[in-house]
Amino acid sequence: MTVTQTHQYPAHQAKAHRLPAYAVFAALLASAGLPIYIHAPKFYVDEYGVSLAALAAVLFGLRLLDVVQDPLFGRLSETLRSKRGAGVLIGTSVMALSMLGLFAIPPLLPPLLWFALMLTGVFSAFSFLTINFYAQGVIKADQLPGQGHLRLAQWRETGALLGVCAAAIAPVMLGTVMGAPFAGFAVGFAVLALAAVVMMRGEWVHNGLPASVGFRAVLGDALARRLLVIALVNAAPVAVSSTLFLFFVESRLEAAGFEGPLLLLFFLSAAIAAPVWGRLAERFGVKPVLLSAMVLAICAFAGAMTLGPGDWAVFAVICALSGATLGADLTLLPAVFATRMARISPSAAEGFGLWAFVSKFTLAFAAVTLLPALEQAGFVSGAGVSSPPEALMLLTVLYAAVPCGLKVVAILLLATTDLKET
To answer: What distances in angstroms separate CA 79 from CA 75, 86, 125, 214, one per listed residue?
Structure first.
């Protein structure tokens, strides 16, 4: 029995009533991903005086934990397939409570230890939920008419990018109306978690799902391995720029107060562009469209090399362009990988266990390499605080030049990869 013979959903029902639930759940997961790397380190530096190097070490340590736990979560997802809904409910509860502990509750232990414990809860639950969500999406997409994986990816990744937009700007906006904006953000996150669980409650099907074929089928497939490597290299520029974004705006551009609007512009551009990239890929093919987006990303990052104090308006244009290219990265690559999983590992849980690890490893690796380097160069975070010229130059090189180099590598890898087998 093939995947497409199980759990047939009526097309009109899938379009009208079910795909929005995937967008909302994706928004929840996205809110607990990239924005936490943007906000949490700076929050603990400013509020509790934790050093950049110490935070970087914690973030990297958590990713080393993921080396073990993400593949195990993939296996656990398969084991609990008949109780996937209950597992998702528990995972969502852990993530919401950990987010409240991270931002809304003063540390009950030394701040660095509390930071590590709360992030462990957030990221572990995030991993488990992401694996289940994307694995279920492979089954879902096969029931949709036409290019189901691209169609689901457009809903899912647009929802994810809107979630990132909201999470990126929320603490800044809440800061204008309340004294504890990050606490308000954590409470809002918990409310979104409840809404996402309710909307997805009927989607965690298990009867008739194909049996797991294990990690060997994924890692033994040349194209799947290649896609994982491309994802790793291509995600690294976003990891670098996201880790340094707030520091770049505040210290290099000397535009304190503009961080929120610029972040919103970046992620909103990605959200608006995501469905456009999807439609272009349906018409012209994934590979040429994705390569075009990568070239545009290099042009955008290169422009940031020339910026200095007061250049926030030019940087806004760069944010819009680079954000738009992010929409292609987050929509097209997961769709290609999901299509491949549908052929070689239809249950997909192990495959997306590896995908989740690749996606998060880049963020942690960026943090553990970039933040200590800046601190070693004498960089000091804070509006109105002066850092040595060499530290600011290093900040610019790391933020703009390094992503360009990584994108070039990603382009070469993708250009030499045959995607016709997907």
So the answer is: 6, 13, 17, 11
All residues at 6 or more sequence positions from 299 whose CB lies less than 8 Å from its CB, including other chains: 321
Q: Output the six-digit token pair for 166.
A: 């909201």
Torsion angle in degrees (nearest 10) through CA of 273, 279, 280, 283: 180
Can you list the alpha helix ranges (DSSP code H) found in 251-401?
259-284, 286-304, 312-344, 349-376, 389-396
- pTM (global) more than 0.85: no
List CB contacts of 184: < 8 A, sequence separation 6 or more. Answer: 170, 171, 174, 178
Residue entry with tokens 């670098």: 240
What secondary structure does DSSP assign to 97-152, as a single string? HHHHHHHTS--SS-HHHHHHHHHHHHHHHHHHHHHHHHHHHHHHHTTSSSSHHHHH
Per-residue pLDDT tens over the stretch 345-366 = 665 566 767 777 777 777 777 7
Vertex 275 angle, CA 270 and 278, to 5°: 110
DSSP assignment, residue 209? P
